[in-house]
Design a protein that fits this description.
membrane, 45% helix, 3 domains, 17 helices, alpha+beta, six-stranded mixed beta sheet, UPF0353/GerABKA_families
């Protein structure tokens, strides 16, 4: 196998000393670089050297490869004579089989790139090419249970930071030649390898064309994680609502491929990006399809209620206690007034202070070490809540509302959707403080118009609500029985060919 040189690439010299000098200059001050000399041919009169990073290549891999090469370079199979350089070069150029598969390199730049990728590269005297052997031996995280998407029932394996293994976990589930995976590398210092996949015949051709147009703009720049790609391909980086989904579960990725989605993976990170995302899909969990219909439908309805609680509960409290006290039952109103007696702040300031405290505690619980973080967030919430009530800064009912709002945001299946609710909660509170219930209605109307106009990669964000498609509602508010959902992807998504106009008869 050959890797051809581009027209602008510098060729490999036939003088071994010249290649060695260029290698030493290129990798100067790299203390983990190893250069090993060897001799071969009649009377061991010919020289060669191998170059690799000992921090990337396992020693046992190198020793095994070295023994194989020594046998190959000193003895011809079946002849028992020493191998001459021209015979050795012809063997590799014609794709001769050996224990390790060798790649013939034509350019010096490609040799440098392979060394950086964890290959062992060999240079020979009198040959203007090099050999490259894959020998990457870094320790990788093993496949474990998902940490961000745990389930009671269902598969228990998660993606890891190695791109090829992640692709393999998808291939073992989706055994179809229509499952396409395309790779490319970003021209930067990191040379990050990116792969995206789709199910041919199921994905919308217009969506795929627009996606390829956007992702192939990533010709340069440092891409270190999958979330970098999200901001580079989304329609608006200032939109609080997520336009893609993330998962670390291979079964979820395969299910979305069957639904006509596009997945993106980056070497070095374990999360899979799924695009385009719609609002109903962000409210769904993989476990919805591993539970019985009645249980899954009830959980989905609870999530919808949790969505409105996380978005509007503090705003409703502010609107009712400030503008619409006549809507509160008398007994409850008296309880609210008694709890607010002596509070020096209006309801909006009181709510903003408590929400700010809650967000700080949540962020502190995430950033601290895991054994300490959970204790700080729980104990801190109890201590601050109790101290705020005793100090007369906040009322007990507001502490309960803030706690319920936080718990409801934890019920969102997608973390990026929960973050969007945390952001939108504050403008909703301001609208409620300015105009009460009318302000809430205006805010909800503006929010609905914004969501209706969103078109990530050209797909309606609120489908099947806008545009309204009653047939698809059986997998939105409720989860219909699987008998009505399990169809072939071709039946659900394959576009019918447009009818061609009939040729007109010649007159």
């Amino acid at each position: 196998m050959n890797k051809g040189a581009d027209s602008g690439c510098e060729a490999i010299s036939t003088v071994l000393g010249s290649n060695l000098k260029r290698i030493e200059t290129t990798f100067a001050n790299c203390s983990d670089l190893s250069i090993v000399y060897m001799h071969y041919g009649p009377g061991l009169g010919y020289s060669a050297f191998s170059v690799y990073y000992n921090s990337l290549v396992q020693r046992k891999e190198y020793n095994y490869l070295k023994e194989t090469l020594q046998d190959l370079m000193t003895t011809q199979v079946g002849q028992g004579t020493s191998v001459r350089p021209e015979e050795l070069f012809r063997f590799f150029e014609q794709g001769g089989a050996s224990t390790h598969t060798a790649v013939v390199l034509d350019s010096f730049e490609q040799a440098v790139s392979d060394v950086n990728d964890g290959y062992i590269v060999l240079f020979f005297d009198l040959w203007n090419k090099a050999l490259s052997y894959k020998a990457l031996g870094l320790e990788k995280r093993q496949v474990t249970e998902p940490t961000t998407e745990p389930v009671v029932q269902g598969p228990k394996e998660s993606t890891i930071e190695e791109l090829n293994k992640n692709i393999g976990m998808l291939r073992i589930r989706l055994k179809s030649p229509r499952f396409k995976m395309e790779k490319f590398s970003v021209e930067s210092e990191t040379k990050t390898e990116i792969a995206y996949g789709y199910l041919e015949g199921t994905v919308d051709p217009e969506v795929l064309a627009e996606f390829k147009k956007r992702i192939h703009r990533l010709t340069c720049g440092e891409i270190l994680e999958t979330s970098y790609i999200e901001e580079l391909i989304e329609d608006s980086p200032y939109n609080p609502f997520p336009q893609v989904r993330y998962t670390e579960r291979p079964d979820v990725a395969v299910a979305e491929l069957l639904n006509g989605k596009i997945i993106v993976m980056v070497n070095g990170t374990g999360s899979i990006l799924i695009c385009p995302a719609t609002f109903p899909e962000l409210m769904q969990s993989s476990e919805d399809y591993y539970q019985r219909t009645l249980i899954a439908s009830l959980i989905r309805l609870m999530r919808l209620v949790a969505f409105f609680i996380a978005l509007m509960l503090p705003s409703i409290y502010i609107a009712l206690s400030t503008f619409h006290t006549e809507l509160i039952p008398t007994v409850l109103l008296l309880a609210v007034l008694n709890s607010r007696e002596g509070i020096p702040f209006p309801a909006i300031i009181e709510a903003l202070i408590m929400e700010l405290f809650f967000e700080l505690l949540r962020e502190a619980g995430v950033r601290l070490p895991r054994p300490v973080g959970s204790a700080v967030s729980i104990v801190g919430a109890l201590v601050i809540g109790e101290a705020s009530i005793n100090a007369g800064i906040a009322s007990p009912i507001l502490v309960i509302i803030v706690a319920l709002t936080g718990i409801a945001s934890f019920a969102m299946p997608q973390f990026n959707l929960a973050v969007a609710l945390r952001i939108l909660r504050f403008p909703m509170m301001l609208f409620a403080a300015l105009l009460g219930g009318f302000g809430l209605m205006i805010a909800l109307l503006l929010l609905w118009l914004h969501l209706s106009n969103m078109r990530p990669l050209g797909q309606p964000y609120l489908a099947p609500l806008a545009p309204f498609k009653p047939v698809q509602l059986k997998d939105f508010l409720i989860r219909a029985p699987l008998q009505s959902l399990l169809r072939s992807p071709r039946q659900m998504h394959l576009r019918k060919p447009k009818p061609q106009p009939k040729p007109q008869p010649k007159t």
